[in-house]
Specification:
Blueprint (H helix, E strand, L loop, with lengths): L8 E4 L8 E8 L3 E4 L4 E6 L10 E6 L2 E2 L3 E5 L4 E3 L1 E5 L5 E5 L7
Length: about 100
């Protein structure tokens, strides 16, 4: 079970986008995540009429390493670490390390 999953709200710990929040869009190679609106790159794209692609300058979200990302805890309004626990039905669940509440 992964500590950070697709759809989780995360906060960036280091780099040019330090302190920004966003949702995980995609997990790449179990070491990188793509976060919405973070680590953007401007790409000059040529038009391709046969596929319907318009040309121009396009913003692309690039991957960021998992070590530079922490899950966001809405109750404390801060970053938090992820731990694992077993519930009453013997299922493994993710919990916040600081409070122990379910994610």
């Amino acid at each position: 079970m992964k500590k950070i999953r697709k759809g989780d709200d995360v906060i960036i710990l280091s780099g040019k986008d330090k302190g920004k929040r966003g949702a995980v869009v995609k997990i790449i190679n179990n070491n990188y995540v793509q976060v919405q609106g973070v680590n953007t790159l401007k790409k000059h794209q040529k038009p391709n009429p046969s596929t319907g692609v318009t040309g121009g300058i396009v913003n692309i979200d690039m991957p960021i390493h998992l070590s530079n990302v922490a899950i966001y805890n809405f109750s404390t309004k801060k970053q938090d670490r992820v731990g694992f626990s077993v519930d009453a039905d013997n299922n493994k669940i993710r919990v916040f390390r600081s409070s122990g509440e379910k994610i």
